[in-house]
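Dear Dr. H.,

I hope your travels went smoothly. While you were away I took the liberty of generating a structure for the chain from your last submission, since the lab meeting agenda had it listed for discussion. I wanted you to have the full record in hand beforehand rather than looking at slides cold. The sequence, exactly as received, is reproduced here:
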Amino acid sequence: MFAGLPGIGVGTLFYVLIALWMPVREIAFVVTGRSSWARWRLIATQLVFAACIVASVAAADRLLVWMLGGNQPQAPGPARWLNDELGTRLPESILAAPIVASVLLLCGVLLAVQVARLVVTLANRRLTTPGLQLNPKDRAVLDGN
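The corresponding predicted structure, in token form, is as follows:
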């Protein structure tokens, strides 16, 4: 295990994305009349926090580039290793690779959660379908034997 740079992990990425989603979600509550000023105040607070996180990561990136003595860092990543032309179009940041890794990991976690949710839903539907006959082994598990 290794320590990463603060602000570019999966948890922070999830927080920032959820904070950006909050106003979009709240519009549905405005339409149905269930929104309030207190909710919008909370959303504004979370958006300010998310903006500060993004700004601090951008500032840390620029500071790290300056401390390393480079004006234009070469962004590490598979695209640069495979094709220099494609790599030159990457964002010029030393944090590009860790952020992409966090995005991919978050996508994998969210996909796994949705697949697990689908499996549980289908299993529950199978068990509650009227007229469905379970084999004796499954019935024994359900009865706790």
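Two observations you may find useful: The chain has a mean pLDDT of 79. The two ends are 42 Å apart (CA to CA).

With kind regards,
E. W.
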